Amino acid sequence: MRKLAVSIACAALTAAPAMADEMWKTDIGTMIWEDDYDGGAIFMVEVGGKPVRFYIEGLTGSDESRGNFTGYWINTDDEQLCSSQMAGPDGTASRTWGRVSLTFLDPAFPSDWVLLASDCLAEPSIPLTGRTVTG
């Protein structure tokens, strides 16, 4: 949990994201809704020049009502935080990953959110807030 906590507390965005349908300002940089996959959404933020992807299960671009979601994150840095590798549906894989719980604060688009994250299989407890970027 130390690795993610340090990243959340200290990391800065090193590259501006490309245009995205939805973007949020967080303490670790600007997070974008990068893509969808069969059954969910992929959010991405660059930390230390490496993408960190958040796979939000059950969230799709066609959702008009948003609430609570679970999923996982994968960091593509070279550290091996966990004893096993996690792979996302887009092929991103690493031994640095964890679980997430995401709650949108407003059921309508656009909405801020609060995410709780963990390292590996621990219960999500590290907070990260996303504030909607509009305009």
Structure characterization notes:
The protein has one helix at 2-10, and strands at 23-26, 29-37, 40-47, 50-57, 68-75, 86-87, 93-94, 97-104, 113-117, 126-132. The longest helix has 9 residues, at 2-10. It is 7% helix and 45% strand. The chain is globular. It is mainly beta. It has one helix and ten strands, in the order H-E-E-E-E-E-E-E-E-E-E. Strands 1-2-3-4-5-8-9-10 form an eight-stranded antiparallel barrel. A two-stranded antiparallel sheet has the order 6-7. Strand 2 and strand 3 form a beta hairpin. The chain has one domain (2-132).
Order of helices and strands: HEEEEEEEEEE
SS content category: mainly beta
Alpha carbon gyration radius: 14 Å
Please tally the helical runs, counting DSSP H or I stretches of 4 or more residues.
1
End-to-end gap: 35 Å
* Fraction of helical residues: under 10%
Total strand segments? 10
Number of domains: 1
Overall pLDDT level: 86
Strand content: over 45%
Q: Tell me about the largest β-sheet.
A: 8 strands, antiparallel, barrel
**Large-scale geometry:** globular
Quick recap:
The protein is mainly beta. The chain has one helix at residues 2-10, and strands at 23-26, 29-37, 40-47, 50-57, 68-75, 86-87, 93-94, 97-104, 113-117, 126-132. The protein has one domain.
